[in-house]
Amino acid sequence: MPSTQSVYVSMSILALTGLVGTGVAIGSGVSMMTMSMAQEEQKQLAVASVKEAKVKVPSRGFAASSSSN
Predict the structure, then answer these.
(1) 2 SS3 class
(2) Greatest CA separation found in the chain?
(3) What is the CA radius of gyration of the chain?
(4) pTM attached to this predicted model
(5) How many Å apart are CA 57 and CA 55, to the nearest integer?
């Protein structure tokens, strides 16, 4: 194989591996975003299904004294 052809073959192989790597990176990013969206949906469903508890607010402030002067 002549040296010029060897250079073209090696550059082609490098370009193909770069394209494959880019495809893997994009696929990983898409799957991570999909998983993140699914987790957010699960959190929203869990929050929506929990009943709200009524909080009793005291009529006096926190530092109010219970003894009368």
Answers:
(1) coil
(2) 106
(3) 32
(4) 0.48
(5) 6
